[in-house]
Structure formats: C-alpha cells, structure tokens
Amino acid sequence: MRIDIITVLPELLKSPFEASILKRAIDKGLVEVHLHNLRDYTDNSYNQVDDYQFGGGAGMVMMIEPIDKCISELKSQRNYDEVIYMTPDGSTLNQRMANSLSLLENIIVLCGHYKGVDQRVRDMFITKEISIGDYVLSGGELGAAVLCDTVIRLLPGVLNDETSALTDSFQDGLLAPPVYTRPAEYKGVKVPEILLSGNFGKIEEWREEKALEQTQKLRPDLLQ
Ligand code: ADE
Q1: What is the largest CA-CA distance in the chain?
Q2: At residue 178, does pLDDT exceed 70?
Q3: How far is the CA of 146 from the centre of ligand 1 (A)?
Q4: What residue ranges define each of the domains in the chain, with the CATH number in brackets?
Q5: Which end of the chain has fewer CB within 10 Å, C or N?
Q6: Residues with Cβ < 8 Å from 190, sequence gap 6 or more?
C-alpha cells in the first residue's frame, strides 16, 4: 500500500512514522508513506496556501490551486483508489472503514486547516471525507496520523502475531475481553482461574462471554 499525505505541516506528521509498528511496517516495505508539503506547490513568493473567504467572514480558506497541482502531479504518476479529505464534516472513522481502506493500493490523504478547503476541491477531487470524531482539531494532520495507524496495522505482515489484529476490540463488533499476565496473584487480586486451567476450549468460551458482557456494560450501542 502507498499513502500520500498532503499537508501544510509535514513536521507534525513525521514522528508517528518514525517509531514502533508504523516504522517497522515502512522498513519492511509493507507500506510507503510520503509527505507532501503543500507550500512546495505554490507559485507566489510568500508560499501562501490560504486566502480570505469570498463573501466575508472570519477564517482563511485553503486555495484550490496548490492542492490541484499536488494531486494532479501524484495522479500523473499512478492511479489512486481514494482521495480522502480529513474534516470534522466527514463520516466518522470506525473499524469497518479501516478494514476496507486497508485493502486499497494507493490513497491520497489531504489535511485541512483554517476554515477548511475551497469547496471546489471537495467537489472536484475528493472521493471520501473522514472525521476521527465529533470534535474540532486545529488541522487534519492528527486525524491523518490516526487513520494511517489504524489502517497500516491491518496490513498483512505488519503485526508480529498474525491473529492479534483479529482479536482487537471492534474487529468482531465487540469490545475485547480482559487480559492478564504474570503474576497470577497481585496484592491478593487473582487472575480468573479459567485462564490458568489450560483448557483452551473453555478459555475461548470464557473470552466470548466476557467480550459480550464488557460490550453490554460499556458500549451497549454496539449491540443494537
Ligand atoms: N480536522 C479538524 N477536525 C477534524 C476531525 N475531527 N477529524 C478529522 N479531521 C479534522
């Protein structure tokens, strides 16, 4: 998979890809992530990417021209499955969306700033608008980092234990069951007996039961 991220703040997006699982996925060649500084696609002397909005009103709007130049250059090099715009107006990201995005070959992710982008960018280039939640960030970069993290960890070979993404919370529509490690007893609090029994059939049943119980208690909306 290849992800091209268009941003006015590439430095904000560097570190998530320089550590841990995402870095390993890139080093192993399982994903390519390219950051494009929108200011490199301006031709005014101030490298200006935003301007006042027509009709008046507070807040600047990102101009179409540099975005068009950047997207068009990328599209002249390869085909893209989706051109995604990170915005609080978008569909809220969930595991189902992450799963389907992880099957794609090439995607562009555009990070918004200020009051957002000129509407014509959305009309002419954007195929999907994604929000990471009902709150407003100062830009789309942190949203793009969240999106990339959740998608990249699903790519085959990225996680060490192939099954561990499959047992994540949400992967089967339920929250994950509780997990424990050593010691078996800590300050008098014991690990559930069943987990020490070695009876894997019973352990699996217990986990399914707990996943359902946990979901009913914490996120009953997931069961509706
Ligand atoms: N940009 C600003 N707020 C955002 C959000 N909640 N999700 C994605 N991108 C955003």
Answers
A1: 70
A2: yes
A3: 10
A4: 2-152 (3.40.1280.10), 169-223 (1.10.1270.20)
A5: C
A6: 184
Q: What is the pLDDT of residues 115-133, one digit of tens each?
A: 899 999 999 999 999 999 9
What's the gap in Å between 131 CA and the centre of ligand 1? 5
Pocket test for ligand 1, best of 137, 138, 149 (most atoms within 8 A of CB): 137
| Phi–psi pair at 3, nearest 5 degrees | -120, 120
45 CA to middle of ligand 1, Å?
29
| Protein residue whose Cα sits closest to atom 4 of ligand 1 | 88
Environment class of 209 (CB within 10 Å of its CB; exposed 0-12, middle 13-18, buried 19+): exposed
Token digits of residue 7: 């941003």
The pTM score is: 0.94
Question: Please, are residues 116 and 138 in contact by the beta-carbon 8 Å criterion?
Answer: no
The tens digit of pLDDT for each residue in 90-119 reads 999 999 999 999 999 999 999 998 789 999
> What average pLDDT is seen over the chain?
95
